[in-house]
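Worked problem 6 (solution included).
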Amino acid sequence: MKSIIIAGTNSGVGKTTITIGLIALLKKRGLKVQPFKVGPDFIDTGYHTMIAGRPSRNLDGWMMSEDYVKESFYKNSSDADFAVIEGVMGLFDGVDGKGLEGSTAQIAKILNAPVILIVDAKSMAGSAGAIVYGFENYDKDVRIAGVIFNNVGSENHHRILKGAVESKCRADVLGYLPREKDIEMPSRHLGLVTAEDNPIKEEFINGLAEK
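Solution. The predicted structure is:
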């Protein structure tokens, strides 16, 4: 059973949008997908469940022991073809700034799962390489396998971003989402609206999968 972690440089970079797009794409390919969410969040898990057709589960290295994280992960994904884990906040954001406890990076290390790093590329060019380089080298036991850019303005913008990362970093640039309002998840001051408040239309899901 394969797994991937969708992590961000910070909150609000598009982790949930890309996570549900990936779940939808894998399902279209006939795979059974088990979603997870790092942290106690219940809003994102509602969207995961809606798209995957099976309950999304929470993984939390601060409230759960390492053994229980592993037990929950393997128990809930044992009959799945692929596990997609959405991170919380930025990749290394945990309960404090000194360690990884409660962070997405902690879960990546516990499960030895590769990370796809989401970078908001709005108003950015070559600096994308410095950002990804910093994340790769902050903790080399966290395996950043790929990068996806969000809010990309054009094909030329993507070419510059891709060149900046791949000239300095180990991670591959896997793709990007364009700066389009019709693929943004609705939000409010306390975060995303719930799946019950905002049931996602099928054409929105299909559009994300095709991106």
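Discussion: The first strand starts at residue 2 and ends at 8.
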